[in-house]
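Standup notes, structure subgroup. Blocker cleared on the zinc ion input:
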Amino acid sequence: MLTDHHTHLAPDDDPLDEEALSIERIVAHVTAAMDRGLAAVAVTEHIYRFRVAKPAWAHPYWETQTQWDIDAYWEALSEAKAIGFPLLVGIECDWLPTGQEVLVEALRGRPWDLILGSIHWVDEGAVDYDLYSAFDHIDSEALWRGYVDRYARAALSGQFDVMTHADLPKSFGPLPSPATLGWAYDAIADALAAGGVCLEVSTAGLRKAARELYPSRALLERCNQRGVPIVLSSDAHAPADIARDFELAVEAAVAAGYSEVQQLKGRDRRPVPIG
Ligand SMILES: [Zn+2]
Ligand SMILES: [Zn+2]
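Run returned:
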């Protein structure tokens, strides 16, 4: 049985209020996961949804998003897990070149099941959000170089169990030259291996402009060659997308040479055979 390691209870622009954290919402989430035959589903809201993350970065998007209560989030999920729902309590945490110590502190002291590491920003520009798109300010060569620099530093930081959507920029702007792309794939795979961190194979890319998994086949093969462990994820923001297209993720993993995926719990992992 498989696990979906990356889901959200609400779309990013919806409130993360009492309704979003209600037991009804959590039951709908878990029911969708069980209907799809999953062993468990991880809920991994963005850290930038929570007030506790606000001091990390003075950026208009960050400042408007950081308005919800991390204690309420933690309690809602922990209570549901305690009564037996197959839930993993997680969080999707950005890695920021400055201010990261605020995020580390915000996560401290809670027994998370998993902490996802993400790069969504290059300088002041968003990789995956049109309103602040980094592609409006720098060309794709510079964007990919900046993105990979951050991604590698995050993978090596020791702060994360899983690194997310490795080639995210491909869905939001033009690709760089083949030489830069090849360099990017090598640098990402090297950093994941050196950092001892899992990579997610995410089906979210199939629902975006790139119409392919994160990561691409060429990047996944490089990760396999370096022994980087993988987990499966959907990055669902609604129950209908939980574990969506997992058969394609499994197929891609097998084609890249993988015979197992990891299942996380309590920030530990164990392998499960696939294919
Ligand atoms: Zn993300
Ligand atoms: Zn996400």
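Discussed briefly. The first strand starts at residue 3 and ends at 4.
Next: hand off to the docking folks.
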